[in-house]
Amino acid sequence: MTHQIDLIGVPMQCGAGRRGCVMGPDALRTAGLDRALIALGHDVRDRGNLSATPRETGPAANPAIHDLAEAAGWVAALQSVEVARDRLPIFLGGDHLMAAGTVPAMAARAGRPLFVLWLDAHSDIHTLESTDSGNLHGTPVSYFTGRSEFTPYFPAPAATVDPANICMIGLRSVDGYERSALNETGIETADMRHVDEHGIAAPLRAFLDRVAAADGALHVSLDVDFLDPAIAPAVGTTVPGGATFREAHLAMELLHDSGLVTSLDLAELNPFLDDRGRTATLMVDLVSSLFGKTVLDRPTRSRL
């Protein structure tokens, strides 16, 4: 299956604690994302980078929060992005606060239930009140599920997502507050222990079956820290024990086989922390697997 794909750059870093994600979109372009997708037969249009105007918010009640006006501006800008129904958007981040804009936008556009596959070491379900770090990339899930009030700082979500329609795979850094929030919402999770015990295919296939049964649209939100930092060092929130090269590719291949993906986030790529473009190249390779690149067995050489 070929797709008409829009690449949309989201050069934001205000939600993160370390600077550098602003360079993520251009690093993905430099690594050849468009060329890789075109080589697979897809029609690709690069729409350039979005921009955002800081929103007048006033100070947050939580003094730890930083860059609130800029963050609110990005959420508003992303929620107003327009994508034709016959095109599949890939949002090139940018820190993971981008999902507070992309997910409501895709939910409003879908015209049917939106499901979200969250591939991340973190659950990002803090609220404006609960965050200790003040890094707003830890809050988008609370925002787009409507479990916490973010107004008047952020615009109201264009649409929300039912927590029952979310599956998080790869979790391995979840604090006490987030653990309680996940239990309260009933979001489906498969942490890395679950992946270790059962493999990545079992929870992903079960979720994809649910999406298909509901005739749902599927938004995939892929954070670089889903991957083990040994293979993907370019992220400011490294957590050991992430998905391996083959686990990540298998997940992408299963997503491709499902034919269900309707939009994609690539979040938290920080080229400032990369090793000669290694992580950006891996992300391009993973996206290629999601859009049809296959791994073929090589014949074994005869022993002499």
Question: Could you please describe the fold and organization of this structure?
Answer:
The protein has one domain: Ureohydrolase domain (Arginase, Chain A), CATH 3.40.800. The protein has an 8-stranded parallel β-sheet, with helices on both faces. With 304 residues, it is an alpha/beta fold. 33% of the residues lie in helices and 15% in strands. The longest helix has 14 residues. It contains 10 helices and 8 strands. The radius of gyration is 18 Å and the shape is globular. The C terminus is likely disordered.
Sequence-ordered SSE layout with sheet pairings:
Layout: E1 4-10, H1 24-30, H2 33-39, E2 43-49, H3 68-79, E3 88-93, H4 99-110, E4 114-119, H5 140-145, E5 166-169, H6 176-185, E6 188-190, H7 192-198, H8 201-213, E7 217-223, H9 245-258, E8 261-267, H10 278-290
Helix pairs in contact: 1-10, 3-4, 8-9, 9-10
For this structure, what is the CATH class? Answer: Alpha Beta
Strand segment tally: 8
Tell me the overall shape: globular
Which strand order spans the largest sheet, edge to edge or round the barrel?
2-1-3-8-7-4-5-6
Number of self-contained structural domains:
1
- Tell me roughly what share of residues is in helical segments: 25-40%
Average per-residue pLDDT, rounded, comes to: 95
CATH names the topology as Arginase, Chain A
Segments where pLDDT lies below 50 for 5+ residues?
297-304
Instruction: Please describe the biggest sheet, giving its number of strands, its sense, and whether it closes into a barrel.
Output: 8 strands, parallel
| Helix and strand sequence | EHHEHEHEHEHEHHEHEH
- Alpha carbon gap, first and last residue: 42 Å
Structural class: alpha/beta
Name the CATH superfamily classification.
Answer: Ureohydrolase domain
